[in-house]
């Protein structure tokens, strides 16, 4: 028997599968020998992935087939004696074992040189409720889940076009994780699409343990030190559908409730669904506010530190921003400690049981807020500005962008504390270079249409216009 192809002998096929799948050790891998039309047959499936009612009906049907009605080949069997929609025929062991481990019901019949694969699987899944991270003030309340078939259906529901393509790939020698590329065939950049397919096919890892983050690291290996995100992540099917219609590629990974959007520029990452669920004036205000707040979160604390070093630069009438209490710890160390403390509180909030989140939040606010100032560790002005920065970070839906700005802000604080105004300027230049020299995964400019400059496209990125078909 060819080591890569199955045999027409049922006993040989069973010996191979029983050894390969370790059915005597794995309690959840079930096999059962039955008689179908007077022939010996054996079925393999994963317990918990198959629908019990459907399995019972199919077994009743198989056992009721008479010997004279039994087809002579697997192909004829699939055409005349399998009353189910999703049926496939395979004779390659690698493909057969992949489908069995994915939850597909496999039927082997004596004398048939191909396996009958019946996709009757069902996965444990939660409901498509609104995602916790990508909430909107107005709009649809459904979101992606961990089951990839549900996610593709949510996109198909919104784009009912024959131009929509969904290609499946696999990555990971052990995990064999399903990856789906979603795109519009007439709008996508096919050169970038082919490059993306090649990169996925060339992935040589044992498993995508962290799902999309593992895939992102495999797809983009250049400039890993640049913190600004190369992908946009969303848990909203309406956002993913809109990006597909704009010619982008959406990457879905099984077991992950997020969609990856590529290629992605800095303007794509700042955009949110709320910009389009409100009228153009409101949407433009929300978008410009998000841009302005992002700039403020970066500049506020370094600028305050610089002004405390150069009090003579404080404009007339703004002398009240000066630190009034004695400074026991240098301001730069206060800011750095609070940057670390805020992340500590964020991690604590994630791991805090829901029943304790409210009392612990009140305790943290009292102890870290009031007593930290009274004890002399922090000045009230420092606490105020860091509180604004901490809250304003959540105006960005992208955690990756928030942390990129945080890292750049810390660099600015350190350089400003050491070199003064020249360190402040150098840090801003470093920020501009980090954004300006960054590239999307397709190799294009990260800040297009700002560079190369395109005024018409830039205005569309900054301002929310009406839909083209709605204009008179």
From TrEMBL:
GO terms for biological process: spore germination. GO terms for cellular component: membrane. Keywords: Membrane, Transmembrane, Transmembrane helix. Belongs to the GerABKA family. It comes from the Bacteria. It comes from Parablautia muri. InterPro entries: Spore_Ger, UPF0353/GerABKA_families. The chain crosses the membrane at residues 291-309, 383-401, 413-435. This is Spore germination protein.
């Amino acid at each position: 028997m060819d080591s890569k192809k199955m045999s027409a002998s049922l006993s040989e096929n069973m010996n191979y599968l029983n050894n390969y799948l370790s059915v005597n050790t794995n309690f959840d891998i079930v096999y059962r020998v039955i008689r179908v039309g007077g022939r010996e047959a054996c079925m393999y499936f994963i317990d918990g992935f198959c629908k019990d009612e459907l399995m019972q009906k199919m077994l009743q049907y198989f056992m009721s087939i008479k010997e004279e009605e039994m087809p002579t080949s697997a192909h004829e069997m699939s055409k005349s004696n399998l009353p189910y929609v999703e049926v496939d025929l395979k004779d390659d062991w690698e493909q057969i074992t992949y489908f069995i481990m994915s939850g597909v019901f496999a039927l082997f019949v004596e004398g048939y040189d191909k396996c009958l694969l019946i996709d009757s699987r069902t996965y444990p899944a939660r409901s498509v409720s609104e995602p916790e991270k990508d909430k909107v003030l107005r709009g649809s309340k459904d979101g992606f889940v961990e089951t990839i078939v549900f996610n593709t259906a949510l996109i198909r529901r919104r784009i009912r076009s024959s131009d929509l393509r969904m290609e499946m790939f696999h990555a990971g020698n052990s995990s064999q994780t399903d990856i789906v590329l979603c795109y519009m065939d007439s709008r996508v950049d096919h050169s970038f699409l082919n490059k993306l397919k090649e990169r996925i096919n060339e992935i040589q890892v044992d498993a995508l343990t962290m799902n999309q983050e593992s895939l992102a690291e495999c797809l983009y290996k250049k400039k890993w030190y640049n913190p600004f995100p190369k992908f946009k992540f969303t848990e909203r099917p309406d956002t993913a559908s809109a990006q597909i219609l704009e010619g982008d590629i959406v990457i879905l990974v099984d077991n992950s409730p997020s969609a990856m959007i590529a290629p992605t520029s800095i303007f794509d990452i700042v955009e949110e669904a709320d910009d389009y669920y409100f009228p153009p004036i409101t949407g433009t205000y929300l978008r410009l506010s998000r841009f302005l707040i992002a700039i403020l979160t970066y500049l506020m604390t370094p600028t305050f530190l610089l002004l405390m070093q150069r009090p003579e630069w404080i404009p007339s009438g703004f002398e009240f921003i000066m630190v009034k209490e004695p400074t026991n710890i240098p301001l730069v160390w206060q800011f750095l400690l609070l940057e670390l403390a805020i992340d500590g509180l964020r991690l604590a909030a994630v791991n805090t049981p829901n029943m304790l989140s409210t009392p612990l939040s009140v305790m943290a606010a009292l102890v870290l807020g009031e007593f930290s100032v009274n004890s002399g560790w922090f000045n009230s002005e420092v606490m105020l500005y860091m509180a604004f920065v901490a809250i304003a970070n959540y105006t960005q839906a992208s955690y990756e962008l928030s942390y990129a700005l945080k890292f750049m802000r810390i660099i600015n604080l350190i350089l400003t504390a050491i070199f003064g105004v020249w360190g402040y300027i150098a840090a801003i230049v470093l920020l501009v270079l980090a954004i300006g020299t960054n590239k999307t995964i397709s190799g294009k400019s990260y800040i297009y249409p700002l560079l190369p400059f395109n005024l018409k496209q830039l205005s569309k990125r900054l301002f929310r216009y009406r839909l083209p078909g709605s204009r008179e």
